[in-house]
Predict the 3D structure of the following.
Amino acid sequence: MTRHDPSTDEPAAAPAAQARALSGAQGPSGGEPSGELGGKPVGAVLHAVRLLQVLADSPGPLGVTAAARQARVNPSTAFQILRTLVRGGLVAFDPALKAYSPGLGLLALSRSLLGRDYTDLLRPELVRLATNHECLFALWRLADERAVLIDRALADTPVRLDIQVTQRIPSLIGAVGRVVAARLALPEDELRRRFSHLRWQTPLSFEDYLREVEEARGCGYGLDLGNLYTGIHSAAAVVCDDRARPFLGISAITLAQSSPPDRLRAMGEELAALCRTASGIPGR
């Protein structure tokens, strides 16, 4: 997407759209046709997932009524689902409290994920997002005031943007940079100092940058409307470790003319939700 200048670690040129004929469309898994996921979802499964999420987020066991209310599930349906999940070991039942909590079976299911690299875990999500939104999605590793591209998924379209893996940019620049700055909560003087070293194709004032950082703090995602690269819009969110420090960024990158503000914000909201799910895992 950019030509890297090793003497500065700054983007050296605007991204170029690569025209290619594509065949063999892939879906979210990388191999399944995207239409496979277009059917009607199974209500009972969705209800079970909601109940498990509610129990996982709760500081203590919950009764059926409380769990059903928070999961927006009919209490009778919730009771039947929770009983089934108890039998499967995914939920534990305390007969004294008549309340439910996550069971050890969930730990067994997640064991295979705990030792895997985040890149492997997020790769299917990148492909799903690129397929659904028909634009480039990039995964960045954040360290030492730099963002390094470690993976990306390309849009399945005849003309598409691309970016070279290992591309390096300052961690406070672009859409990723705005949300990184929001998460780091640097003193204004320090943020101003770092901002003065950033190079934008369409420069913005520090006051505008600071305002957009505050917006990113509020909504959980950052936007870049052609500042980093003229004609290129992007939305981004970050994955934080168990100490709330950002260590990965995910960005949606698209041509300005194909990304009206509402579409870009919708992608930002989806990225923010994904990153919240992936954040805060102990040991990360």
